[in-house]
Amino acid sequence: MSRIEKMSILGVRSFGIEDKDKQIITFFSPLTILVGPNGAGKTTIIECLKYICTGDFPPGTKGNTFVHDPKVAQETDVRAQIRLQFRDVNGELIAVQRSMVCTQKSKKTEFKTLEGVITRTKHGEKVSLSSKCAEIDREMISSLGVSKAVLNNVIFCHQEDSNWPLSEGKALKQKFDEIFSATRYIKALETLRQVRQTQGQKVKEYQMELKYLKQYKEKACEIRDQITSKEAQLTSSKEIVKSYENELDPLKNRLKEIEHNLSKIMKLDNEIKALDSRKKQMEKDNSELEEKMEKVFQGTDEQLNDLYHNHQRTVREKERKLVDCHRELEKLNKESRLLNQEKSELLVEQGRLQLQADRHQEHIRARDSLIQSLATQLELDGFERGPFSERQIKNFHKLVRERQEGEAKTANQLMNDFAEKETLKQKQIDEIRDKKTGLGRIIELKSEILSKKQNELKNVKYELQQLEGSSDRILELDQELIKASVLLLHISITKERELSKAEKNSNVETLKMEVISLQNEKADLDRTLRKLDQEMEQLNHHTTTRTQMEMLTKDKADKDEQIRKIKSRHSDELTSLLGYFPNKKQLEDWLHSKSKEINQTRDRLAKLNKELASSEQNKNHINNELKRKEEQLSSYEDKLFDVCGSQDFESDLDRLKEEIEKSSKQRAMLAGATAVYSQFITQLTDENQSCCPVCQRVFQTEAELQEVISDLQSKLRLAPDKLKSTESELKKKEKRRDEMLGLVPMRQSIIDLKEKEIPELRNKLQNVNRDIQRLKNDIEEQETLLGTIMPEEESAKVCLTDVTIMERFQMELKDVERKIAQQAAKLQGIDLDRTVQQVNQEKQEKQHKLDTVSSKIELNRKLIQDQQEQIQHLKSTTNELKSEKLQISTNLQR
Q: What is the largest CA-CA distance in the chain?
C-alpha cells in the first residue's frame, strides 16, 4: 500500500519564497491531523497534496492565485516549489517535485508551470525522470494506486467542492462513474457483448462446418469399412495365390528339369552339329593341308601327338600369357582411369586451393598495407616495410590494443571533463535563461509603462494645444472687452450695431448640434470601451491557455517544417527504392530483406566463383586430355598409314588376306608343280609314252612330244625362281598382315578415339565452355545485382536515421495536435485572431478618441457659454447705453 511520508512547500499562497521560508511537513501513519486557526495554511497543505498528486489547481485559481503574490513579495518573478516523498504500492521510495513561476506584468500576472521531476531509487542509485520524458500525473496515479477521481473527489476534495454529493443527478452520476470507474465496466460489458456476438457467429460457422464434418466422417467410416472388406478379400486372395504357388512349385521344378534336359539335348545337338562342322572343316583343312603340305611328317602318330601336345602347351602358355597381359592391361587401364579421375579431382582441388591461396595472399597484402598505413598514422616504428611475420603481427596487435586502451581512457577522461563542463555550462545557461526571463519581464513592464507615459504625454501636449487656443480666445475676448469699453464711450448706435452684428454672427445653435453629435459619439465610444474591457478580461483570463496555444502552434509549425524538410530530402530516393515513402518499420524490414538478399547474392557469387574455378580447371584438364587424344590419334593414324599406305584399314586387310591366300595357293601350286613336271618329264622321256599324262592326248609326232617336254623342262627350270619369289612375296605379305593384325587394337583405338573418346571430350569441352560462359554471365549478373543493391542499401541506411527522427517528430506532432485540440476546447467561443496587445492598442485608440471627443464637447460648451455671456454683456451694455442715452436724451430734453 502506498504511504505519504514528507512534503515541502515553498512560495505557495502565504508560504514564503525564500529558502528559509520552506516548510516541511512530516506525515504520520496511520493518521495525521492538521490543527490551526483560520489562515494558518491547512487548506493550502491539502491543495498542495492535491496538486503534487494530480496536477490540478484549486477551484477558481488557474494557478495565478495559487502562487505567492509577486506584489506582496515586491518581486517581479515568484517561484513556487512543492516536493513530496512517498512510498508507492510496491514500497519503493519515490520523490516528486513540481515547480511554478508567477511573473508580474503591468496590469496582470502571468503564471507558468516549470518542468517536473520524479525520482526513484533503483539498486541504490537515484534515477530521475522529467516531465519531458513522461507524464508525471499518470506516473503518480500508477504509483499511488488510486485513481485521479478518488484523489480529487474523495481524498483531497476541496472544501469549496465538498458538497458535490448534493449536486444534480447527471453531474452526481458522472462523479460516481469516475470514482467507481463505471466507464471501464461499461466498456468491458460492450467488449463482452462484442466477444459474445463474435463467438456466436463462430459457433454458427462451426456448426455449419460440423454438419459437413459429420458427412465427411460418415463417408470416412464407409471408406474404412470398404478398406476392411477389401483387405479381407486381399488376404483371402493372397492365401489362394499362395496355395496356387505351392501347387506350382513342383510343376516349376519339373518344368525346370525338362528345360534343363532340353537345354542339355540342344547343347548336345549343337555340339554334334559343331563337331560335324568341325569335322568337315578339319577334313577340308586336312585336304587343303595335304594339298599345300610341302613336307609330310614321317613319324608315328605318337610322335605327332607329342609334337601336337607340345605345340598346344606352347599355345596355351602363350594364351595364358596373353590373358595375363590383357588382365594386366585392364588393371593398368583401370588404375589409369582412377589416377586420371584422382588427377582431375586434385586439379580441381588445386585450382580451388590456388584461388584461395591467391585470395589469402591478397588479404595478406591488404592487411600489410593497412598495417603500414595504420602504423604511419599511429606513428609506430618497425612497420614501414612488409611482409610481416606472425610475431610482428602479434606485436602490432598488442601495440594497437595498448594505444586503443590509452585512447579509450583519454576519450573517457575527455568525455567526463566535457560532461562536467557541459553540466556547468548548462547551469550557467539555466541561470542566464532565468535572468533573461526576468529581464524580459522587466523590459516588457518598462515598455508598457513607457508606452503609457508616451500616451499621457501626447494627451498633455494636446491639452496644451487646446489651452493655447483658449488663451488666444481669451485675448480676443479681452480685446473685445476693450473694444466694448471703448465702444461704451461711443455712440449707442454703434453698440447696437455691434450687438446686432454679434447676434447675427453667433453660432450657438451649430455648436449645440455639434455637442449633441459629439455626445452620441462619446456614448458609442463608451460602449466600445466596455466591450473591449470585457474582451480584455476574457483574454487575461485565458492568457496562459493562449500562450500555450501559441507555443504549441509554433511547435507544430516547426515540427511540420522538419518533417517536410526530411520528406523533401529523401522523398525521391525512397520512392524510387520502395515505390512509396515508408515509415521506420517498413524501411527496417526493407533493409533487412536487402541485407538478406545481399548475403544470399554474396553466397551465390562465392559458389559461382568456386564452380567457375572448378570448371576452368576441368576445362584445362579436358583440353589437355583432348590434345593428348588428338596427338595419340595422329600418331596412330601415321603408324597405320605407314603400314597400310591408306586409311582404309579393313579393305586393305581383306585385300591383303586375299592376296596372301592367292600367293599361298600359288606357292603350293609351284611347290607341287616341280614334282609334277619332273614326273611328267620322266614319264614322257623314260616310259616313252606318246600320250599326255594329264589329258591322255596322244602326240602324233616326236617333235610335238619333244616340244611338250621342252616346254615342261623350261617351266621346271622357272618353277624354283617363281616359287622363291612367291614365297618371298608371301612372307612380305604375311609380315605385313601380321603387322596389320598387330595394328587391329590400334585401329580399334583409332575408331574409339574418333567415334567415342574425342567427340565425347569435345562435347564435354563444349558443355564446359557453355557452363563457364553461363557461370561468367551469372557472376556478372550477380555482381551487377550486388553493385545495384549495395548502394541502395547504403542510401537507405543513410535515410533510416532521418526517417526515425521524422517518425519521432510525427509522434510528437500528434501529441502537440492533441494538446492544441485540448487548448482550443478551452478557448471555444473566443476570437483567436485577436491578441491582448491588439485589444489593448484598440482600447487605447478608443480611449484617446473618447478623450478627444470629451475635450471637444467641453470646448464647444465653453464657446457657447462665452458667446452667450458676450451677447448678454453686449445686451446689458446696450441697455445701459440706451438708458444712459435716454438719460442723456432726457437731460438733453431737460
A: 254
Contact 715, 674 (CB under 8 A): no
Q: What is the three-class DSSP state of 102?
A: strand
Task: Give the closest residue to 875 by CA, choosing from 476, 487, 498.
Answer: 498
138-177 pLDDT, tens digit each: 888 878 878 777 777 777 777 777 777 787 877 777 777 7
691 a known binding residue? no
| Contacts of residue 307, Cβ cutoff 8 Å, sequence gap at least 6 | 297, 299
Domain shared by 132 and 267, yes or no: no
Please answer whether residues 843 and 536 qualify as being in contact, where contact means their C-beta atoms are separated by less than 8 angstroms. Answer: yes
The residues facing 100 across adjacent strands are 80, 113
**466, 495, 566, 525: which is closest to 804 by C-alpha?**
566
Rounded CA gap, 762 and 618, in Å?
Answer: 13
729 in a structural domain:
yes
**Cβ atoms within 10 Å, residue 498:** 18
Evaluate whether residue 370 is within a structural domain.
no
Whether residues 209 and 176 fall in one domain: no
Do 111 and 100 meet the contact criterion of CB atoms below 8 Å apart?
yes
Question: With the CA atoms of 267, 273, 276 and 281 taken in that order, what torsion angle do they form, in degrees rounded to the nearest 10?
Answer: -110
Q: Are 387 and 372 in contact (CB under 8 A)?
A: no
Contact indicator for 446, 839 with CB cutoff of 8 Å: no
Pair (202, 175) in one structural domain: no
- Residue 381 makes CB contacts below 8 A (sequence gap 6+) with 375
Contact 720, 744 (CB under 8 A): no
642-673: per-residue pLDDT in tens?
766 655 666 777 777 777 777 777 766 666 66
pLDDT digits (tens, 9 = 90+) for 403-425: 778 888 887 888 778 778 877 87
CB 748 within 8 A of CB 581: no
311-344 as b/e: b if 16+ CB within 10 A: eeeeeeeeeeeeeeeeeeeeeeeeeeeeeeeeeb
Judgement on whether residues 606 and 749 belong to the same structural domain of the protein: yes
- Confidence check: pLDDT of 530 > 70: yes
Q: What is the per-residue pLDDT for 827?
A: 64
- Nearest-angstrom CA–CA distance, 686 and 705: 13
Phi-psi region of 91 (alpha: psi -120 to 50; beta: other; left: phi over 0): left
* Residue 851 CB contacts under 8 Å (≥ 6 apart), including other chains: 459
- Residue reference for cell 541506411: 797
Residue 371 and residue 383 in contact, taking contact as beta carbons nearer than 8 Å? yes
**What are the cell numbers at 661?**
591366300
* Rg for the chain, CA atoms, rounded: 68
Distance CA 407, CA 401 (A): 10
Which domain covers residue 236, as residue numbers?
A: 192-292
Of 43, 30, 34, 21, the C-alpha closest to 3 is 30
Residue 689 lies in a domain: yes
Q: Which of these, 682, 744, 758, 672, lies nearest to 713 by C-alpha position?
A: 682
Residue 25 pairs with which residues in a beta bridge?
7
Q: Where do we find the cell 458609442?
A: 524
Q: What angle do CA 154, 158, 164 make, to 5 degrees?
A: 65
| Omega before residue 387 within 30° of 0, cis | yes
Enumerate residues 6+ apart whose C-beta is below 8 A from 383: 371, 372, 375, 392, 396
Domain boundary residue among 261, 292, 323? Answer: 292
Cα–Cα distance measured from residue 476 to residue 456, given in angstroms and rounded to the nearest whole number: 30
Q: State yes or no: 692 annotated in a binding site.
A: yes
Q: Rounded CA gap, 766 and 46, in Å? A: 97
**Mean per-residue pLDDT of the chain:** 76
Parallel, antiparallel, or unpaired for β 117-122 and 23-26?
unpaired
**C-alpha dihedral over 539, 542, 545, 550, to 10 degrees?**
0
Q: Which residues of 595-610 are buried (b: 16+ CB within 10 A; e: fewer)?
A: eeebeebeebbeebbb
